[in-house]
Amino acid sequence: MAPRYPMKAPVRVLVPAPPPAVAAGEAAVAEVSSRVPPPPQAHALIEYASEQELEADFIENLSQGGAFIRSSHPQAVGTPISLELRLPNGTTLKAQALVAFANGNGMGVKFTLDAEAEATLEAAIAHISARPRRALVVDDDAMTRSMIADALADRGFEVLTATDGQDGLRVVSEELLGLDLLITDVYMPGMDGEVFLRTIRQAGGEADLAIVVITGRMEAGLERRLEKEGADAVLDKSLGPELVAQAADAVLERKRLMRGA
Protein backbone atom coordinates (compact mmCIF):
# COMPACT_ATOMS: atom_id res chain seq x y z
CA MET A 1 0.00 0.00 0.00
CA ALA A 2 1.38 3.41 -0.93
CA PRO A 3 2.01 5.67 2.08
CA ARG A 4 -0.46 8.52 2.53
CA TYR A 5 0.60 12.08 3.27
CA PRO A 6 -1.71 14.55 5.04
CA MET A 7 -2.51 17.75 3.18
CA LYS A 8 -4.44 20.88 3.98
CA ALA A 9 -6.06 21.72 0.66
CA PRO A 10 -9.55 23.03 -0.19
CA VAL A 11 -11.35 21.26 -3.01
CA ARG A 12 -14.25 22.26 -5.23
CA VAL A 13 -15.97 19.33 -6.97
CA LEU A 14 -18.13 19.90 -10.03
CA VAL A 15 -20.59 17.08 -10.74
CA PRO A 16 -21.42 16.25 -14.36
CA ALA A 17 -24.92 17.12 -15.51
CA PRO A 18 -27.14 14.09 -16.21
CA PRO A 19 -27.70 13.25 -19.88
CA PRO A 20 -31.00 14.47 -21.39
CA ALA A 21 -33.87 11.99 -21.12
CA VAL A 22 -35.06 10.28 -24.30
CA ALA A 23 -38.76 9.38 -24.58
CA ALA A 24 -39.56 5.74 -25.29
CA GLY A 25 -40.29 5.05 -28.94
CA GLU A 26 -38.57 8.16 -30.25
CA ALA A 27 -36.04 6.18 -32.24
CA ALA A 28 -34.93 9.05 -34.42
CA VAL A 29 -34.25 11.24 -31.42
CA ALA A 30 -32.46 8.38 -29.71
CA GLU A 31 -30.27 7.87 -32.77
CA VAL A 32 -29.29 11.53 -32.78
CA SER A 33 -28.68 11.49 -29.05
CA SER A 34 -26.38 8.51 -29.37
CA ARG A 35 -24.11 10.61 -31.58
CA VAL A 36 -23.98 13.49 -29.12
CA PRO A 37 -20.78 13.46 -27.05
CA PRO A 38 -21.32 12.47 -23.40
CA PRO A 39 -21.52 15.26 -20.85
CA PRO A 40 -18.18 16.45 -19.46
CA GLN A 41 -16.74 14.55 -16.56
CA ALA A 42 -16.81 15.98 -13.08
CA HIS A 43 -13.98 18.43 -12.53
CA ALA A 44 -12.36 18.93 -9.14
CA LEU A 45 -10.06 21.89 -8.71
CA ILE A 46 -7.78 21.18 -5.77
CA GLU A 47 -5.51 23.99 -4.65
CA TYR A 48 -2.93 23.48 -1.91
CA ALA A 49 -3.42 26.18 0.71
CA SER A 50 -1.36 25.56 3.82
CA GLU A 51 -1.96 29.06 5.09
CA GLN A 52 -5.60 29.47 4.13
CA GLU A 53 -8.77 28.56 5.95
CA LEU A 54 -10.27 25.27 4.82
CA GLU A 55 -13.51 25.26 2.90
CA ALA A 56 -16.28 22.75 3.60
CA ASP A 57 -14.80 20.22 1.12
CA PHE A 58 -11.07 19.55 1.18
CA ILE A 59 -8.46 17.00 0.19
CA GLU A 60 -7.30 15.20 3.33
CA ASN A 61 -4.41 13.07 2.14
CA LEU A 62 -2.44 12.25 -0.98
CA SER A 63 -0.58 9.13 -2.08
CA GLN A 64 1.17 7.91 -5.22
CA GLY A 65 -2.03 6.19 -6.31
CA GLY A 66 -4.79 8.54 -5.25
CA ALA A 67 -6.28 10.84 -2.64
CA PHE A 68 -9.06 11.10 -0.11
CA ILE A 69 -11.45 14.04 -0.48
CA ARG A 70 -13.45 15.07 2.57
CA SER A 71 -16.94 16.00 1.39
CA SER A 72 -20.49 16.06 2.64
CA HIS A 73 -21.59 15.09 -0.90
CA PRO A 74 -19.36 12.19 -2.01
CA GLN A 75 -19.90 10.84 -5.50
CA ALA A 76 -20.88 7.23 -6.14
CA VAL A 77 -18.25 4.53 -6.47
CA GLY A 78 -17.20 4.22 -10.11
CA THR A 79 -17.81 7.89 -10.99
CA PRO A 80 -15.03 9.21 -13.26
CA ILE A 81 -13.69 12.66 -12.38
CA SER A 82 -11.04 14.98 -13.72
CA LEU A 83 -8.59 16.46 -11.22
CA GLU A 84 -6.37 19.50 -11.32
CA LEU A 85 -4.17 19.76 -8.25
CA ARG A 86 -1.82 22.56 -7.34
CA LEU A 87 0.78 20.64 -5.38
CA PRO A 88 2.78 21.90 -2.38
CA ASN A 89 6.01 22.14 -4.39
CA GLY A 90 4.34 24.65 -6.73
CA THR A 91 3.63 22.31 -9.64
CA THR A 92 0.22 21.54 -11.13
CA LEU A 93 -1.00 17.99 -11.72
CA LYS A 94 -3.80 17.19 -14.16
CA ALA A 95 -5.14 13.66 -13.99
CA GLN A 96 -8.16 11.48 -14.56
CA ALA A 97 -9.44 9.64 -11.52
CA LEU A 98 -12.13 7.21 -10.48
CA VAL A 99 -14.07 7.18 -7.21
CA ALA A 100 -12.83 3.99 -5.54
CA PHE A 101 -14.88 4.16 -2.33
CA ALA A 102 -17.20 6.54 -0.55
CA ASN A 103 -18.48 6.92 2.99
CA GLY A 104 -20.07 9.53 5.19
CA ASN A 105 -16.80 11.45 5.41
CA GLY A 106 -16.04 11.74 1.70
CA MET A 107 -14.57 9.73 -1.16
CA GLY A 108 -11.33 8.02 -2.05
CA VAL A 109 -10.20 8.50 -5.63
CA LYS A 110 -7.73 6.47 -7.67
CA PHE A 111 -5.52 8.24 -10.20
CA THR A 112 -4.87 7.23 -13.80
CA LEU A 113 -1.57 8.94 -14.72
CA ASP A 114 0.64 9.10 -17.78
CA ALA A 115 4.43 9.06 -17.41
CA GLU A 116 4.73 12.85 -17.18
CA ALA A 117 2.00 13.15 -14.54
CA GLU A 118 3.51 10.24 -12.60
CA ALA A 119 6.85 12.06 -12.46
CA THR A 120 5.13 15.27 -11.34
CA LEU A 121 3.35 13.45 -8.52
CA GLU A 122 6.52 11.63 -7.44
CA ALA A 123 8.38 14.95 -7.16
CA ALA A 124 5.55 16.48 -5.11
CA ILE A 125 5.38 13.51 -2.72
CA ALA A 126 9.15 13.63 -2.26
CA HIS A 127 8.71 17.29 -1.30
CA ILE A 128 5.92 16.50 1.18
CA SER A 129 7.65 13.52 2.78
CA ALA A 130 10.87 15.50 3.24
CA ARG A 131 9.24 17.95 5.66
CA PRO A 132 10.33 17.66 9.30
CA ARG A 133 8.03 15.88 11.69
CA ARG A 134 5.98 18.35 13.71
CA ALA A 135 5.12 18.12 17.39
CA LEU A 136 3.01 20.16 19.80
CA VAL A 137 3.96 20.31 23.50
CA VAL A 138 1.23 21.47 25.89
CA ASP A 139 2.17 22.19 29.52
CA ASP A 140 1.46 25.09 31.87
CA ASP A 141 4.97 24.84 33.35
CA ALA A 142 7.26 26.94 31.13
CA MET A 143 10.46 25.08 32.06
CA THR A 144 9.00 21.63 31.43
CA ARG A 145 7.49 22.83 28.16
CA SER A 146 10.80 24.29 27.00
CA MET A 147 12.91 21.28 28.01
CA ILE A 148 10.67 18.75 26.25
CA ALA A 149 10.47 20.99 23.18
CA ASP A 150 14.29 21.19 23.08
CA ALA A 151 14.60 17.41 23.44
CA LEU A 152 12.18 16.88 20.54
CA ALA A 153 14.02 19.45 18.43
CA ASP A 154 17.24 17.49 19.03
CA ARG A 155 15.45 14.48 17.51
CA GLY A 156 14.60 16.44 14.34
CA PHE A 157 11.11 17.67 15.19
CA GLU A 158 9.72 21.08 14.40
CA VAL A 159 8.08 21.98 17.71
CA LEU A 160 5.10 24.17 18.60
CA THR A 161 4.06 24.87 22.19
CA ALA A 162 0.90 25.79 24.11
CA THR A 163 0.28 26.72 27.74
CA ASP A 164 -2.95 24.76 28.43
CA GLY A 165 -5.67 22.68 26.79
CA GLN A 166 -7.57 25.64 25.39
CA ASP A 167 -4.42 27.11 23.83
CA GLY A 168 -3.56 23.62 22.56
CA LEU A 169 -6.95 23.32 20.85
CA ARG A 170 -6.30 26.59 19.07
CA VAL A 171 -2.96 25.30 17.74
CA VAL A 172 -4.44 21.95 16.70
CA SER A 173 -7.27 23.75 14.89
CA GLU A 174 -4.87 26.06 13.06
CA GLU A 175 -2.45 23.28 12.10
CA LEU A 176 -5.22 20.76 11.38
CA LEU A 177 -3.49 17.83 9.63
CA GLY A 178 0.05 19.25 9.87
CA LEU A 179 0.88 17.73 13.26
CA ASP A 180 2.43 14.30 13.78
CA LEU A 181 2.81 14.18 17.57
CA LEU A 182 1.13 15.78 20.58
CA ILE A 183 2.58 15.68 24.10
CA THR A 184 0.30 17.09 26.77
CA ASP A 185 0.38 17.40 30.54
CA VAL A 186 -2.63 16.16 32.51
CA TYR A 187 -3.01 18.65 35.33
CA MET A 188 -3.31 22.18 33.96
CA PRO A 189 -5.50 25.17 34.87
CA GLY A 190 -8.52 25.85 32.68
CA MET A 191 -8.91 22.93 30.28
CA ASP A 192 -6.85 20.06 31.66
CA GLY A 193 -5.12 17.38 29.61
CA GLU A 194 -7.86 14.79 29.99
CA VAL A 195 -10.58 17.09 28.63
CA PHE A 196 -8.17 18.30 25.93
CA LEU A 197 -7.49 14.70 24.87
CA ARG A 198 -11.18 13.79 24.85
CA THR A 199 -12.10 16.87 22.80
CA ILE A 200 -9.53 16.09 20.11
CA ARG A 201 -10.41 12.43 19.79
CA GLN A 202 -14.17 13.06 19.73
CA ALA A 203 -13.71 15.65 16.97
CA GLY A 204 -12.37 12.82 14.80
CA GLY A 205 -10.18 14.95 12.53
CA GLU A 206 -6.91 13.89 14.12
CA ALA A 207 -7.23 10.11 14.15
CA ASP A 208 -3.66 9.69 12.88
CA LEU A 209 -2.16 12.09 15.44
CA ALA A 210 -0.01 10.30 18.02
CA ILE A 211 -0.94 11.60 21.48
CA VAL A 212 1.30 11.07 24.50
CA VAL A 213 0.10 12.25 27.92
CA ILE A 214 2.65 13.11 30.61
CA THR A 215 2.08 13.57 34.33
CA GLY A 216 3.99 14.21 37.52
CA ARG A 217 1.35 12.28 39.52
CA MET A 218 0.74 8.78 38.18
CA GLU A 219 -2.41 8.08 40.16
CA ALA A 220 -4.10 4.68 40.28
CA GLY A 221 -6.32 4.13 37.26
CA LEU A 222 -5.11 7.28 35.47
CA GLU A 223 -3.22 5.48 32.70
CA ARG A 224 -6.14 3.18 31.91
CA ARG A 225 -8.59 6.11 31.87
CA LEU A 226 -6.45 8.22 29.56
CA GLU A 227 -5.83 5.34 27.15
CA LYS A 228 -9.59 4.78 27.03
CA GLU A 229 -9.98 8.44 26.05
CA GLY A 230 -7.53 7.95 23.17
CA ALA A 231 -4.00 8.42 24.52
CA ASP A 232 -1.42 6.32 22.68
CA ALA A 233 0.83 6.32 25.75
CA VAL A 234 0.97 7.78 29.27
CA LEU A 235 4.43 8.69 30.64
CA ASP A 236 5.75 9.82 33.99
CA LYS A 237 7.52 13.20 33.89
CA SER A 238 10.16 11.79 36.23
CA LEU A 239 11.69 10.06 33.19
CA GLY A 240 13.14 13.44 32.23
CA PRO A 241 12.72 15.38 28.97
CA GLU A 242 15.17 13.33 26.89
CA LEU A 243 13.56 9.97 27.74
CA VAL A 244 10.05 11.44 27.35
CA ALA A 245 11.01 12.67 23.88
CA GLN A 246 12.60 9.31 23.01
CA ALA A 247 9.55 7.36 24.16
CA ALA A 248 7.13 9.72 22.37
CA ASP A 249 9.16 9.38 19.17
CA ALA A 250 8.89 5.59 19.45
CA VAL A 251 5.11 5.86 19.99
CA LEU A 252 4.80 7.94 16.81
CA GLU A 253 6.81 5.49 14.71
CA ARG A 254 4.90 2.50 16.10
CA LYS A 255 1.61 4.19 15.20
CA ARG A 256 2.87 4.92 11.68
CA LEU A 257 3.89 1.29 11.19
CA MET A 258 0.52 0.05 12.41
CA ARG A 259 -1.27 2.48 10.08
CA GLY A 260 0.86 1.35 7.13
CA ALA A 261 0.08 -2.29 7.87
Summarize the structure.
The chain has 261 residues and is of the alpha/beta class. Helix content is 33%, strand content 30%.
The assigned CATH architecture of the largest domain is 3-Layer(aba) Sandwich
- Nearest-angstrom radius of gyration? 23 Å
Q: What overall form do the CA principal axes indicate? A: elongated
The SS-based structural class is alpha/beta
List the total number of helices.
7
Which blocks of ≥5 consecutive residues have pLDDT under 50?
22-43, 46-55
Strand share of the residues?
A: 25-35%
> CATH homologous superfamily name of the largest domain?
Response regulator
Helix content: 25-40%
Q: In CATH, what is the class of the largest domain?
A: Alpha Beta
The helix-strand sequence is EHEEEEEEHEHEHEHEHEH
Largest sheet: 7 strands, mixed, barrel
Can you describe this structure?
The N and C termini lie close together (8 Å). With 261 residues, the protein is an alpha/beta fold. It has two domains: 5-129, Beta Barrel (Thrombin, subunit H); 134-260, 3-Layer(aba) Sandwich (Rossmann fold), CATH 3.40.50. The protein has helices at 27-35, 115-129, 142-154, 165-175, 193-203, 222-229, 241-260, and strands at residues 5-14, 42-47, 58-62, 66-70, 80-86, 92-103, 106-112, 134-138, 158-162, 181-185, 210-215, 233-236. Helix 3 (142-154) packs across helix 7 (241-260) and helix 4 (165-175) runs parallel beside helix 5. A hairpin with a 5-residue loop joins strand 5 (80-86) and strand 6.
